[in-house]
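Case study 2.
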Amino acid sequence: MDDGYRNTNQVSDDYRYQDGNYDAPNDGYYRGGDEPTQEEDAQSDVTEGHDEDDEVYEGEYQGIPHPDDIKEKQKKRAPAVDDEYRDRADLMAERMEDEEQLAHQYENIIEECGHGRFQWTLFFVLGLALMADGVEVFVVGFVLPSAEKDMCLSSSNKGMLGLIVYLGMMVGAVLLGGLADKLGRKQCLIISLAINAAFAFLSSFVQGYGFFLFCRLISGLGIGGTLPIVFPYFSEFLSREKRGEHLSWLCMFWMIGGIYASAMAWSIIPHYGWGFSMGTKYHFHSWRVFVLVCALPCIASLVALKFMPESPRFLLEIGKHDEAWMILKQVHDTNMRAKGEPERVFTVSYIKTPKQVDEFIEIQSSTGTWYQRWLVRITTTLKQVWDNVLYCLTAQYRMNTLMLAVVWFTMALSYYGLIVWFPDMIRYFQDEAYESRVKIFDEEEVSHFTFNFTLENQIHRNGEYRNDKFIGMKFKEVRFEDSLFEDCYFEDVRSSETFFENCTIISTVFYNTDLYEHKFINCRLINSTFMKEKEGCHIDFEEDNDFLIYLVSFLGSLSVLPGNIISALLMDKIGRIKMIGGSMLISAVCCFFLFFGNSESAMIGWQCLFCGASIAAWNALDVITVELYPTDKRATAFGILNGLCKFGAILGNSIFSSFVGITKVVPILLASSALVGGGLLALRLPETREQVLM
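Prediction:
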């Protein structure tokens, strides 16, 4: 090569790449006379003998940029410089365009990853979390009969304890669902399950009603976040053709949670010896053991979730391309190894990431105190969550959100209202049958007799009892009216729904009994003594009715199995909208047949039919809610709608239970009309089975 060529090579070395622009040396001298190094000489030799037909000139190999390359780099770089001066609407429009491209590319990537071992592992992990949600709904209802006696609960306290869990779940759904769109699906689900597990565990040990109520409230708040997170989380690992079916299969774990809670209650709570006492103040009865056992699915899911990755779709949404790519590669490799094709290579090298618009300023550690920095972070995050809530009501999503809100609310009002009404009606029929078997004793005279056995479901009128002993016995549903007790002795007596009305009690001793003052109505007590009354509340002897209530809940949970299977198999064939509308209308028809439920067996049968028919609507609602909203708003929207669902559950429980024993017309008409209205409105929602996740 001649010296002229070497001079040209040296000139190219003196160009420097500065922030996307090429600048010449600024010393003002032309460096043509210096000798090149050996490395530079080797670089120039690469171009020797190059075919001129290739239309590649020598300078391109020496680091001198092609003019077209300079223009392209400047074009790419210009928006980054000018973003702060651009209108937010323009940035959002660009982000929407990026998201649309990402949605279709991500669908292709998930199809390449396949559906296999990874999805099934995640299916069972998230299924345990969903199972914990199902358990939480049943826990309080099962422990209430025992807890009310253990903690001396009044009727109003019992009602509050029954509703407090739904109140916590309502708040948790909105709050944790919104945070999942900002902090991540996995992180927020771990927080949700940890809160539930900790306070459920704590609630089994506390003795006071107030603290127990608080623990169940916070426990409900934690578990309320599972539903809005689990379904978006799992859906973001599923392809379009698998999404409807496998989200429906996932819903089965809620049913399994109900079966688990019913079976555990049936096998644990009646065994009152399964506990311990510490003195006279601390009692750990069997119902507390049941509360502990019900926390196990939550704990198991929490542990397993530590080994699962974050949703790559969420990571792409916040601009974390490399982390998302690594997770998708992990999904691909796991599935390919399970299929016996480990040699299959993950071909994706680059994934589109949407333009980042959120203005989140990270505070340096030197700025302010630690609590000031955390306060700013928390308020900023909550503001972003609130912005997401408002976004769900913008023109683009307003109609869908409002229609879904009505469908969720009407479904919850009727379903949860009837789920409470069914057991209450069964108890009512049981009480009627029990009262019909009452034994009445008139003008009975008993003297010098020792009662050491149980008296149950009896009425004693105008009786006379002289020098009688009542020792180590139980009164159950016994009433003494206008009777005389003279020189009698009561010791170690327990009673349930037992009263003395208009009785005369003379020279009688009550020792270590729970026959308190309020059980003597308009009675005359003459020279009678009460010694060492039983303290606190004591669990009554075994109630036969409890077994039937557990059985009813068990059968009600099991009855949704056929509906779950049918909805999973048909979800992608007939579509979400027809599934919701058809299921709600069939459920409304089932409600009308409740007019003919005049016995326990008939009520149990109609309950099973109603639960089996309505579960398909619940499954389709979960699927369509996931598919109607974009990734960065999906959990927020699900949380809002699920929170509204819990509000409907609170109203349904309160309204329907107030009509037990009064009339069946109002609950049946209210439930059926709500289902018909919600089902018809659901038919106006857009179909989403052919839609990729935005």
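Confidence is low (pLDDT under 50) at residues 1-68, 75-82.
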